[in-house]
Amino acid sequence: MKILEEVSEEGVTERRFDLEVDGQRVPGIVWTPTGASGPRPLLLQGHGGIQHKRVENILSLARRMVRRHGWAVAAIDAPGHGDRVSKEEAERARERVMKAVREGGARGARGGARGGRDQRRDMAKAAGMAVAEWKATLDALQGMDEIGSEHPVAYWGVSMGTRYGVPLIASEPRIKCAVLGLFGIGPDPDEFSELAGSIQVPLLFLFQLNDELMTPPAGLKLFETFGSKVKTMHINPGSHVGVPAFERDEYEAFYLRHVGDAPGK
Amino acid sequence: MKILEEVSEEGVTERRFDLEVDGQRVPGIVWTPTGASGPRPLLLQGHGGIQHKRVENILSLARRMVRRHGWAVAAIDAPGHGDRVSKEEAERARERVMKAVREGGARGARGGARGGRDQRRDMAKAAGMAVAEWKATLDALQGMDEIGSEHPVAYWGVSMGTRYGVPLIASEPRIKCAVLGLFGIGPDPDEFSELAGSIQVPLLFLFQLNDELMTPPAGLKLFETFGSKVKTMHINPGSHVGVPAFERDEYEAFYLRHVGDAPGK
């Protein structure tokens, strides 16, 4: 892990880093309390499609967990996102998604994850990369004095952050609880639903009643499929990008319930 | 309103009262901060079927809202419940419900509210009485110096507390927000679903994934039907009576978000 830049502001130290994984450059950020030393809980945040590692919702939850609870927080750009693509490529990807939303094909027959067969195959391949990159990032982060491996690791990721989060959590015993959401599955079992069924850790699962990309029954089906005994689904009215701000309090309360404050907080 | 008994314990004054409504004796309890004077927010709590005004979940939320937030809280026995029936009648009612649960008929074709046509007609009649009794109780409570009519009124009631709460909230502009749940409707509109659709106040709606009495799609349908722009559905695994204890923190957070503390708190 190569630290590229370090900035401290209002008690939060933000370090940009690069990590090489399978020949790919993976750009990331780690946030820790300024002057921190010794191990602490770690939150991994997986961004959504056509977003990146430092969008507003990721940054605000990172600062909140660092300032109020002494946690470390990290985010990386997913394959084909953020600093891994040019502005032009990012814009073309954004236009493709907006077109799919306008055409409403996303809430089609399958009812669950969007797109046709080719798109789903590409997504599965990217998910495999994303999982390998998260594991390598977690290894590197746990080597930092301010993080270590003594405390639980938690995950947050909705939409594409859930598409990649489910295989990550299913295969990563270091992750002890997660906030997921804005994703659904169809009625027939597939590889993704089997991974979801194998997850046992406590979950908070967000869903939007008027999501343009998936139906409430598809979301309910995914929620029912998770193997976790402790899981809660929160449904609010509104669009895919319209999760109410008060749910941020719920993420925080969930992590405190299952992990708690860092030592000394 | 006739006060029958007053007990104060750890900052909470509990007064039992009787109110006569349409020739019926309605037994109730009001909880206020010990030594309170002047107006404050009021929470009305509607108990579930085969329960009564002082079951553990009502008492614990009442004490929490009074102690931490300076609210007043009230509960009354619904028609055919609590001090309005003999122990033998209560036991027979309990056995009827347990039999229905065992037979599983409750999650039948309609998928929503339980029971046959006769039972639904009896329920509608009892709901009419319950609404009239709540309105008379609210009038009487707002006449108390410790409550008054300057602050918002909130409602809490799941299961039968939602069956009666929906027509109450739909016809009672003094109620500004509510926690409801453990209830569902079928796909076809009826009088109950029309009342639900007319509700506009913020709602928190609880549902249990493995409820013996109704299906998740029936719960989702009711949640979708509510006319409120601000509403959140929380779904947890478990049975009708198995709502996780941490949801109590959610009730409290919801009331604080929409009403806030009493003056001086």
The CATH superfamily of chain A is Alpha/Beta hydrolase fold, catalytic domain
What would you say the CATH architecture of chain A is?
Answer: 3-Layer(aba) Sandwich
Oligomeric grouping of the chains? homodimer
Could you list the spans of chain A in which at least 5 consecutive residues all have pLDDT below 50? none
Largest beta-sheet characterization of chain A: 9 strands, mixed
> What order do the helices and strands of chain A follow?
EEEEHEHHEHEHEHEH
Q: How many beta-strand segments of chain A?
A: 9
Number of helices of chain A: 7
**C-alpha Rg of chain A, in Å?**
18 Å
CATH fold title of chain A: Rossmann fold
The assigned structural class of chain A equals alpha/beta
Overall, the morphology of chain A is globular
Proportion of residues in extended strands of chain A = 15-25%
Report on this structure:
Chain A is built from 7 helices and 9 strands, in the order ββββαβααβαβαβαβα. The first copy, chain A, has 265 residues and is of the alpha/beta class. Chain A has one domain (2-258): Alpha/Beta hydrolase fold, catalytic domain (Rossmann fold), CATH 3.40.50. In chain A, α6 (216-225) links the parallel β8 and β9 (231-236). Chain A is globular. At the A-B interface, α6, β9 and α7 of A face α6, β9 and α7 of B.
Task: Give the secondary structure arrangement, pairings included.
2 copies of one chain form a homodimer.
Chain A: E1 2-9, E2 12-21, E3 24-33, E4 42-45, H1 56-69, E5 72-76, H2 87-103, H3 117-142, E6 153-158, H4 160-171, E7 175-181, H5 191-198, E8 203-208, H6 216-225, E9 231-236, H7 247-258
Parallel strand pairs in A: 4-5, 4-6, 6-7, 7-8, 8-9
Antiparallel strand pairs in A: 1-2, 2-3, 3-5
Helix pairs in contact in A: 1-7, 3-4, 4-5
